[in-house]
Design brief:
By secondary structure, the protein is mostly beta strands. Helix content is 5%, strand content 51%. The chain has one domain. The protein is built from one helix and six strands, in the order H-E-E-E-E-E-E. It comes from Croceibacterium soli.
């Protein structure tokens, strides 16, 4: 919650890979919390716009909230990806 509210980068391990994430949202999906975050370590094709991935919080380990701020994705809207998801928190 601190990282989303403060627009702070997070480092974490997910499925055995270290990642730097820019968390834009927290959502509740089927009783589980997920972070909607931009994976800054992902290589994007030149014709592909960066978009949020959804990371189950229970699957993140070695989580560190950094003091480095990020700018939200251009045109970011705080909508949920699936109809029965519930938005808990989003960057302003």
């Amino acid at each position: 919650m601190e990282a989303v509210a403060g627009k702070l980068l997070v480092t974490a391990t997910y499925n055995g890979r270290e990642m730097t994430l820019a968390p834009h949202t927290l959502i509740l999906r089927h009783g589980e919390m997920y972070a909607g975050a931009l994976n800054l370590d992902k290589t994007w094709r030149s014709d592909e716009s960066p978009r949020l991935g959804y990371f189950k919080l229970a699957g993140l380990s070695d989580v560190t909230v950094t003091r480095k701020q990020f700018e939200p994705i251009a045109g970011f809207q705080d909508t949920v990806p699936q109809a029965d998801d519930q938005l808990v928190l989003a960057v302003a």
